[in-house]
What does this fold into?
Amino acid sequence: MNRKWMRLDNAALIFPAIRSSRWVNTFRLSVDLTETVDPALLQQAVEDLMPRFPSLYVRLGRGIFWYFLEQVRTVPKVRPEYAFPLTHMSAKEQRTCCFRVLYHENRIAVEFFHVLTDGSGGLVYLKTLTSRYLELKYGINVTPEKGVLDFKETPKDWELEDAFQKTSGKYAMSRKEANAYHLSGTLDASGERHIITGIVSTKRLVEEAKSLGTTVTGFLSALMLEALAEMQASHVKEKNFKPVKITVPINLRKILETDTLRNFTLALNIGVDPRLKTYTVPELCREYNSQMALEMTKEKMAARVAANVNLQRLMGIRLVPLSLKNIIMRGVYNSVGEKKGCINISNLGRVELPEEMQPYVERIDFVIGVQFSYPNNCSVASYGDVTCINMIRNIHETEIERRFFTRLVKRGIPVLIEEGTEDPGEA
It folds into this structure.
């Protein structure tokens, strides 16, 4: 494989085409340490990891027919947190490097343009970066396990592959489904995005989910579905009701057997039609379980992958100039892309670290930006007994956050609330 440049993976193709001065599909992973971050040592760690992660240390280039990723020649400079999480990543910055490393007090954060990887791939980088930083600062030796890579190893070819191309099924599954209820509100005129973080006990979440016979993601999705149905009932006439659905990104690595560090996620829309009945939380948990069980098979996921890959492989599409491709993809995404769900719930799950790192790490956060048309999004990560539920929005109203977190409290799960604002940045 040519390590100097690479094609965008199948999931990444859409992101450069629909980016704008107000929206770039980025996400953030951060770790809170027990002591203040040393910027010089963090910079050294970033430099040490450059040969190990050639698919991340790249810039976005533009060709005649497609965008491409080209390895950068200089190591990205770590920066102090200069604004708020997920400050706009301009096209100019993407032409320099498609991720940034930030620090503030005891926090190390990495923000990725989604062309590079997904949350699972990004977490491998954050873990490995943190482990190298801790080795430099404290003189410890961290065992390369639980998602921490040996930075001295040569990258494996399968880490850099476009797994969508490799695992695409023989037949493509139809992507037709009913449009969902759409959240709306008063857009912030300044373009700011606001973050509310609910911090809860991982143990209590797991206990409650088990009592309802589902996973933590299933439990949180059930609460969100109930809140969405209640919101729709309070804002929309019953005759105009639409299904309420949670968009759940699915990590395909275990299902389709690959450990690529690039994007390898597909989204499922899980939900119910409130016109049929008023669903209770236990019923919503059962709906989540049954719909997931029906869809989460190797064969169906391969068929869903094929639906995307087959379009990319069409000769007619491949030969269309990039400027025209952008217009077509933006139009299709505007008309279809985000109309099938109401809000994302992206859960990284319980993050595990090698034993040597554990005394130095207090908390891990995952924040995904608002989508192209979704005004709200939700992302979750757990470390130890601390689960951080980050809800981001670009509207003034906090109704969905209030309804959702209130439901957690009513089920006996205390929620500590933190609030912040994301600076929109410059075009």
Confidence is low (pLDDT under 50) at residues 422-427. The chain is about 30% helix and 25% strand. Residues 80 and 103 are 5 Å apart (CA to CA).
